[in-house]
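Weekly structure sync, notes
Attendees: PL (lead), two postdocs, one rotation student
Agenda item 3: pending single-chain targets
PL asked that the sequence for the first pending target be pasted directly into the notes so everyone works from the same version. It is reproduced below exactly as submitted, 393 residues in total.
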Amino acid sequence: MQSINTQFDLIRQSATVAMADRILALKAGGRSIIGLQVGDPDFGTHPSIVEAALKAMQSGLTHYGPSRGYPDLRTAVANKLIRDEGISYNPDTEILITHGGIHAYYLAMQSILNPGDDVLIPDPSWATHSNMATMLRGNVIRVPAPADNGFVPHFDSWLKALTPKTRVIVLNYPSNPTGAYPTREYLKKLQDFAAKHDLWIVSDEVYGSLFYEEKPTSAAAIEGAKERTLLVNSLSKSYAMTGWRVGFLAASARIIENALKAGQNSITCVAPFIQKAAAFALTDPAMQEVTVNMRAGYARRRELVLRLSHELESDKVKVIPPQGAFYFFLDLRALKMSSVEMCEKILEDAGVGLVPGSAFGSQGEGFIRMTIAASDEDVEAGFRKIVEWAEKQ
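Predicted structure, written out during the meeting:
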């Protein structure tokens, strides 16, 4: 029998996609399901952004575009990073337009990772962070980020995880699935740690605009951090443009040159009309207000869940207020049941779709991820059903 790439034996399929497939099958069978499993904004892309793409298509921008990204979009990204994070990047040499945030992360890792390098990734975290490193033949070492420390690793855990082969630290703040993020002081200490041990930091900041407390600090905004930090971001969550697949990588010029080669040989370029729509989204003042309004909508739903948790007073479902993103990482460890079994039973018994916490790492066992990127009615009804189910166990 012909051999295939055995590296994929180390990778599981997406738990979110698998759950979505099950929900579709149940709906096809006539079941009414409240879907609280997806990380996709329930807001539509603003019509003005759609119009910008349509105008670009009608003007003939339906062929190849520059593989680095159009200058106006790279400039818009650079201006956003100055405006929102206080970081200055050269749009000509330090920014690359990518096919969404996941592609930006792929290009970042491809640019710096050699086979056999060790990669430190907090646990829990989005499964793609570890899966991608494994696909690129890195060796993933999970660093516990337990609930009792706000889902941020105790700092000595980084030192315990360090090996002579460690080359990269991966961060994702605000976190998917927990919504947590560290203080500026913590990031400063981590950057000093990275500098001392000559490590790269890849920082996935896709949820950076979605915060409910003090604004999170970008890992690249710490003094002296820019040269060793690869900043990943996209328009997916902040502008409700998940299906558009447009993001960016910001890093030093030598990293971008590597990433450009990887991009040219994986996607060639991002669709020109999408780039023009993205440039409009990032520069039009009204679109910035749209982002603020979406965050306010998520904040309202966050408060709704917190109010309900006090009203229902469940001993089985512990609610940890997220600092950012649009998820609750609900603590059901009191049930002494695996998170996969919980999600399967809640889906079958209560008709609510969720994601098992173990999909994000061993520290997620006993937790379930619930999105608030859904209507107020679905969020309230879904949370009530979760609590009702848990109380019967």
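Discussion points:
- Residues 155 and 378 are 38 Å apart (CA to CA).
- The domain at 47-284 is CATH 3.40.640.10 (Aspartate Aminotransferase; domain 2).
Action: rotation student to compare against the earlier draft before next sync.
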